[in-house]
Amino acid sequence: MLESELLLEINRGLPSAVAERYRELTSRRRAGKLTPEEHQELLRLTDEAEQLQAERIERLAQLARLRGKPLRAVMDELGIRPSPDA
User: Fold this and answer.
1) What CA–CA distance (Å, rounded) separates 79 from 6?
2) What pLDDT score was predicted for residue 2?
3) pTM above the 0.70 mark?
4) Backbone phi and psi for residue 75, each to the nearest 5 degrees, phi listed first
5) Backbone φ and ψ of 42, nearest 5°
6) What single DSSP character describes residue 33?
7) Distance linking the first and last C-alpha atoms of the chain
8) Continuous segment of H or E residues that includes residue 26
């Protein structure tokens, strides 16, 4: 994969409508107002978001190998910070 392709994949996020729905469901969960159906939807969206993050990390690792640099150095160059939850 070319560097430009890797960068596109690294910067890809959830579609805006999906991200908005995820935030909405997360907010409802925190408020204790999630229906069982919404809970299942939130689980599905969480899986989707986690899969996207795993793919992003793999692309970052590929880019680091391509550049011959440590992963952390590439993340710093791109302004990517680890999640505080990690």
Assistant:
1) 15
2) 92
3) yes
4) -60, -45
5) -65, -40
6) -
7) 27
8) helix 16-30
